[in-house]
Amino acid sequence: MGSMSPPSLRSSGIALLSAFGLSAISAAAEEINFVSYNLKNYLRMDRRVAGEFKRDAPKPENEIKELIEIIVATKPDILGVCEMGGPDQFEDFVRRLAAAGLKYPHAELTLPADRTRHLALLSRFPIVARNSKTDLTYRLGDRELPFQRGILDVTVQVNDGYQLRCLGVHLKSKREVEEADQALMRRSEAELLRAHIDSIFEAIPGVNLVVYGDFNDTRNELPIKVVRGKFGRPEALTDIQLADDRGERWTYYWRWADQYSRFDFVFASRGLMPEVITDKSYIHTDPDWFTASDHRPLVLRVEATEREVK
Q: Is 14 exposed, middle or buried (0-12, 13-18, 19+ CB in 10 A)?
């Protein structure tokens, strides 16, 4: 492969356009795979590598190899990821996918308040609108705090008659911090996300909207309820309750506590639901999934043709 041209700066983040010299894909795609995946620290950080502590080390090669193999197996047309590093790690990620046969000429990388872990999206199809939010804040007591990873918000033109708006998030982790209560921080971020979702519905009531990512909470907790919205309302989202080939729904494993949880979600708007192919949507599993990440990828199959909302 030739060298990749440097990404161009956007107000909401970083966009890689036609990075591999490929023309925009205009042919209609009858069905597409949207994949959401937390990559587990695809970035430089202090970490243990092969039993040895190293400073400012990238994600280990054995983890990356398995990660790429898993992504290839899910065959994403649009890939939304969490825990991406800066532009250099993102460029490395794009190159490795291309070498494995997955070439994405359109992308978004957000640069929010969290300078370590970012959100990114890769697409085979043109991105026709970029509305990512990286400077949102909220107040807890007398403190103003940032929405740490922000909201990735792009609209993808899948074919001449079909657009998909993609909102990616990675809400505050359960790790305790000095700034404030971690649960209240996560709830506040969820409320900001919900306000952004409501603004989209106000502007485009029938929008084909997918809201995805690592929410760091289970479906019975308040942040998930806030994001989902009130049942029966036109702006409510549907939780696509994906499962693996054994019928299990967990997406994240916390080794220290030996705990399996569903922290990763894919929500669909009322306008998108008629196009969701539920029997082809699933949680991907692999014998070496934990080598790649502590999360498993979610695959949403969508028919890219407008269907009537019932």
A: buried
Structure pTM? Answer: 0.92
Instruction: Confirm whether 293 is domain-assigned.
Output: yes
Torsion sign across C-alpha atoms 175, 146, 107, 30: positive
Give the mean pLDDT of 261-278: 98
How far is the C-alpha of 293 from the C-alpha of 285, rounded, in Å?
11
Strands 31-42 and 78-84: parallel
Q: Look at residue 144 and tell me if it is in a domain.
A: yes
Task: Give the sign of the dihedral formed by CA 75, CA 162, CA 21, CA 120.
Answer: negative
Question: Would you state the structure tokens that stand for residue 221, as one six-digit string?
Answer: 């907790």
Tens digit of each residue's pLDDT (9 = 90 or more) over 134-156:
999 999 999 999 999 999 999 99
Nearest Cα neighbor of 275 from 300, 297, 247, 298 is 300
- The mean pLDDT value for 1-14 works out to 38
Q: Are strands 209-214 and 264-268 parallel, antiparallel or unpaired?
A: antiparallel
The closest alpha carbon to 160, from 310, 24, 277, belongs to 24
* Residue range 290-297: mean pLDDT, rounded: 98
Cα distances from 42 to residues 29, 83, 116, 194, 295, in angstroms, run 30, 6, 10, 28, 13
How confident is the model at residue 283, as a pLDDT? 98
> How far, in Å, CA of 226 to CA of 211, rounded?
13
Q: Does the residue 246 lie in any domain?
A: yes
Residue 269, domain CATH: 3.60.10.10
* Pair of tokens at residue 8: 């161009």
Cβ-based neighbours of 284, under 8 Å, separated by 6 or more: 70, 73, 74, 244, 296, 297, 298, 299
Mean of pLDDT values over 83-103? 98
pLDDT tens track for 193-227: 999 999 999 999 999 999 999 999 999 999 999 99
Distance CA(22)–CA(125), nearest Å, equals 11
Domain total for the chain?
1
Mean pLDDT over the full length of the chain? 92
